[in-house]
Structure formats: C-alpha cells, structure tokens
Design brief:
Length: about 220
C-alpha cells in the first residue's frame, strides 16, 4: 500500500503545499487507523508537515475531503470487485477464484477501508445510502457473473449473496486467519459458491495470483 511518505509534493510560492493525493492518502490512513474524528485539517497538516492553509489549495473544506474519501473507497473497492467479476474466465469456478482473489491479503480490495466506511455509515444516513448503493452494485456484478455461466436469475442471486456475504463477514468480524489456513478452505468455499470444485490447475493459478507457495 502507498504511504504518506511516498507522495511527492509540488513546490509553490510561499512554501510546500503538498498534493491532493497526499492529503487524501493521509486522510485515508488516519480514517482507517483512528476513525472519522481523526480526519481533521490541522492534524493532517501536522502529519504531512505542511501548513493548514495548504489544504485549501486542494479541497474547499473538510466536507469536501470526506466526500473525496468516499469516492476513493468506491474507486478502490467497488471497482476492484467489479473488475474481477467481469474478468475473463473459462469456467464458473475460475471466475469465482478471480473474485475471491481480490479479497485475499495483498489484493486490491482494502478491507480496513471498507470496515471503516461501514462504521461511518452508522453515524450518517447519507453514508449509509452510499454503502447500500455500493453493496447493490457489487452484488449485481457478482450476479451477472453467475448468469454469464448459465445460472438462472434466482439461483445467481442467491449464489452472489453467498459469495459476497462471506467475504464481507470476514471483514466485519475481522477474522484472523493465516494464509495456509485460508487457502486450505478455498476449494470448499468455491464448491459451495458454484456447486463445482475447482480443478488443480485453477487452484495453482489462484495460488500464483495470490503469491502463495503452499506454505513453504
């Protein structure tokens, strides 16, 4: 994951202003690690070693930054899930493995960010509405994946919910599970999700995709 220290800054008259990406990344890190109350302009400026006024070159106010955080969450998590659900696959089991891969450690779906946004939704009706809309969009993408492989709409819907709710359950319960244990369960999960076991070749590709060497 990119860190605040990796972000380049743009020199301007009067000193360093940072960059929009830098401010947003600092806000995301503070939000995920410390909660919404940590996303405030002065603490972020201190974190970035920038002046408070530098913030206003990139965002109108704190509300604009919070809106950008939600946009970033959707771009990071919803987009990565949809991309995986729409990816080429020769079988439904391969398609399901493509989808599960985004949730694995090191995958593009950021579990901590998703958990933080879901916590925020308990405090804001507007955020709750965005979370509900994102969930619906993600489920629709997974449902379409199953329909692409010939599953009837009703069955595709149930299977999509099974896949998605298991993954969100892992996040919401903050399950701690080493990679070898998770990988050992993957064939059973895929058979439950799709009604078919993955082939050995599909599992080998999945392991390679996730950077898993069999626990050696």
């Amino acid at each position: 994951m990119t860190t605040v220290e990796n972000i380049d800054t743009d020199e301007a008259p009067g000193g360093w202003r940072g960059s929009r990406e830098g401010w947003l990344l600092a806000a995301r890190e503070a939000f995920v690690t410390s909660g919404l109350d940590a996303v405030k302009i002065q603490p972020l400026a201190t974190r970035l070693n920038l002046s408070r006024t530098s913030f206003y070159w990139f965002f109108k106010d704190r509300a604009a930054l919070l809106d950008a955080l939600l946009d970033d969450w959707e771009a990071t998590n919803t987009r990565s899930l949809k991309t995986a659900a729409e990816a080429y696959a020769e079988t439904i089991t391969e398609a399901a493995l493509n989808l599960v891969a985004v949730f694995m450690e090191g995958g593009p779906f950021e579990a901590g960010l998703d958990l933080a946004v879901r916590g925020w939704a308990h405090q804001s009706e507007d955020v709750a509405a965005r979370v509900n809309a994102a969930d619906a969009e993600r489920l629709a993408a997974i449902r379409a994946m199953f329909e692409r492989f010939g599953f009837a709409m009703a069955e595709a819907d149930v299977r999509a919910r099974t896949v998605y709710l298991v993954q969100i359950g892992y996040i919401s319960m903050q399950v701690i599970e080493d990679m070898a244990t998770r990988m050992a369960r993957i064939p059973g999960y895929i058979q439950t999700f799709t009604g078919q076991p993955p082939t050995e070749a599909e599992l080998r590709r999945f392991h390679a995709q996730c950077g898993f060497d069999g626990g050696r």
